[in-house]
DNA sequence: CTGAAAGCGCTTACAG
DNA sequence: CTGAAAGCGCTTACAG
């Protein structure tokens, strides 16, 4: 996987996956003719040129790099949960490595906190493409990349910045599935802790939650909704609020796994057992989720696949291609573990 | 379209500012010899190699990648916990980024599982230096890097491969501190779950644990030791064994946080409360440690600083420097949280 | 426009 | 360890 295409022992001295002599044979012309096409020289008939160009492209011959441009895709993070960032990076690397691109990593949190530029230094390094895995991109940033001629792909952007291709997970269906799972178990008083609802993803999850209740004919009780910022403290503090109510929920849908972790703590502080007294669902499926006590029922985001998809788009753009669509949404999966169970009989 | 913009410029087909035939003449050797040096192959005398290398450098031959020599440090992982890998990467990036180097990432687990080469593809990309963050490096691998002229720095290598500079944490003192903390709380029956003891780090931790007992005059009970492989299952299964004994330990020192996580599960399965009935310490301080219920008392490895140090060494080597020492050991810190308490009165 | 032939720079296989 | 010779992939110069 990673880097395949490198497995061969001896490096082939040609640029594509076939020598030009073979390309020539396939095109029914002589090697010199292919050479002329490859180097943009004149003296080749229009039909011949088109035929040869198609073959060259099919066999991995790309326009030669502008001098100084690196065969590198840079992935930019901003304060992302390390385990998630890593999974994304891995997905990017799988795709990029196979095509002989290096994957660059940087975290711009400090730069941004310090009020520094983060776009310029990136453009200066002349990567083949940039993937951002955080939400703070402004339309202005997008323009800078465009001006620098460097393709940009955004993973899970906060807002809808039309010109930048985006990759994310289907948050709405994920939250719908988690909520349905709780409804199926028999829960009727279901709380929800959301992320910042002007985030696209947080909003989509909240909407999925509400839709599930609607479909099931369960009225939505506003006193069971709390808004946080996708943090552990949300789960702990807002969770404690929910549990302290006169009619507390028997289950809570959390906006992400970190909030669920916080809710574990809040529940324990009240002497509630999970899942016997309280069912909890998360969102993300961070790597430790199966190892929590109890293991967390959550909605898996396919971060590796998200990274891989972003890399495919980025490479396509870097090599002069166009995209079929501007927004790619990958499926989420409900992973049922030990933190959900039927509500206690009352 | 392919290769546009190169038609007019008559590009010389060689990489430096003189063809290798001329370099050969200047060095008083034959072209094949220069070719061998250029490609890091064997079969060239030491004197000859040095003379040719100097000439190549003088005439603009950067190992491969003529233009824009890859200002890139590549970090190679192998099945490392994502959150740890990310912290290391961040440390590397901080140092490398400040010097305008890109940080490349790759994970060679699948390659190795598939029995493929992982060194060659890396050498092919000609990074300025390589940092390995896993243990499987053989002396042979080290030689390959040396032959390719690419500096190599190892993070936490399993074995003592003398020629490769290594960076790690002080595992012995860390385990000593954790064990002392439990002794200070009043524990006397302290169990231990170790990693594979032919790992340098696992062995050092076990030794630190034993040293603390010795200093405190507490005899070491072999029935309280279990050996695992640094996994969650170790903590769960070996932990269950320990707890099932007639005289179970009142505290357990785990070889890493993952094992501690497993032990949480094993304790819960027996109805034991942490820390009331059982104290647990981990090692690493993974990012979720403060968010577990209860928050985990553990020994923090300064992964960010380890990465940063490795990057400093790598850059020093890449720029032709020499190192003052071959092995760098950074300090660990005991972080006391909620999983340790005095033993229950009996 | 096209390609046989010659040429170029580098690498490989092998004999010394 | 070393290099003469053969080879390889591509390009160039030129004849048709």
Describe the structure.
Chains A, B: It comes from Micromonospora profundi. Chains A, B: This is LacI family DNA-binding transcriptional regulator. Two copies of one chain form a homodimer. By secondary structure, chain A is an alpha/beta fold. The first copy, chain A, has three domains: about 1-65, lambda repressor-like DNA-binding domains (434 Repressor (Amino-terminal Domain)), CATH 1.10.260; about 70-170 and about 305-330, Rossmann fold (3-Layer(aba) Sandwich), CATH 3.40.50; about 170-300, 3-Layer(aba) Sandwich (Rossmann fold), CATH 3.40.50. Chain A is about 40% helix and about 15% strand. Chain A has twelve helices and twelve strands. The first copy, chain A, has helices at about 20-25, 30-40, 45-60, 80-100, 110-115, 120-125, 140-150, 170-185, 200-215, 230-245, 255-270, 305-320; strands spanning about 70-75, 100-105, 130-135, 150-155, 165-170, 190-195, 225, 250-255, 280-285, 295-300, 325-330, 335. In chain A, the strands form two sheets. In chain A, strands 2-1-3-4-5-11 form a six-stranded parallel beta sheet, with helices on both faces. In chain A, strand 6 (about 190-195), helix 9 (about 200-215) and strand 7 form a beta-alpha-beta unit. In chain A, helix 1 crosses helix 2, helix 8 packs parallel to helix 9 and helix 10 (about 230-245) crosses helix 11 (about 255-270). The longest helix of chain A has 17 residues, at about 80-100. The radius of gyration of chain A is 25 Å and the shape is elongated. Mean pLDDT of chain A is about 85; it is low at about 1-10 and about 65-70. Chains A and B meet through helix 3, helix 4, strand 2 and helix 11 of A and helix 4, strand 2, helix 5, helix 6 and helix 11 of B.
């Amino acid at each position: 996987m990673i880097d395949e295409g490198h497995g061969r022992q001896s490096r082939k001295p040609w640029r594509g996956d076939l020598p030009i002599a073979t390309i020539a044979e396939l095109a029914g012309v002589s090697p010199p003719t292919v050479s002329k096409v490859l180097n943009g020289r004149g003296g080749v008939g229009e039909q011949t040129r088109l035929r040869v160009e198609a073959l060259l492209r099919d066999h991995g011959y790309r326009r030669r790099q502008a001098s100084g441009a690196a065969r590198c895709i840079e992935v930019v993070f901003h304060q992302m949960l390390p385990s998630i960032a890593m999974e994304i990076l891995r997905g990017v690397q799988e795709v990029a490595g196979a095509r002989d691109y290096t994957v660059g990593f940087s975290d711009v949190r400090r730069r941004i906190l310090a009020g520094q530029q983060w776009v310029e230094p990136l453009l200066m390094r002349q990567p083949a493409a940039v993937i951002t895995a955080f939400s703070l991109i402004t339309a202005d940033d997008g323009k800078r990349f465009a001006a620098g001629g460097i393709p940009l792909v955004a993973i899970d952007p906060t807002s809808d910045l039309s010109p930048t291709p985006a990759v994310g997970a289907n948050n709405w269906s994920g939250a719908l599935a988690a909520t349905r799972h709780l409804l199926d178990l028999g829960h009727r008083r279901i709380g929800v802790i959301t992320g910042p609802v002007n985030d696209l993803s947080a909003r989509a999850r909240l909407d999925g939650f509400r839709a599930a209740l609607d479909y099931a004919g369960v009225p939505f009780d506003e006193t069971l909704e709390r808004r946080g910022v996708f943090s552990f403290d949300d789960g702990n503090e807002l969770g404690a609020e929910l549990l302290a109510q006169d009619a507390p929920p028997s289950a809570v849908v959390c906006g992400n796994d970190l909030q669920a972790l916080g809710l574990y703590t809040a529940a324990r502080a009240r002497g509630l057992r999970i899942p016997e007294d309280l069912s909890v669902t998360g969102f993300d499926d961070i790597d430790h989720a199966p190892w929590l006590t109890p293991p967390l029922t959550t909605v898996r985001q396919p971060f590796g696949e998200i990274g891989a998809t972003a890399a495919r788009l980025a490479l396509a753009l870097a090599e002069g291609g166009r995209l079929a669509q501007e927004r790619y949404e990958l499926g989420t999966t409900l992973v049922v573990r030990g933190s959900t169970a039927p509500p206690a009989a009352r």
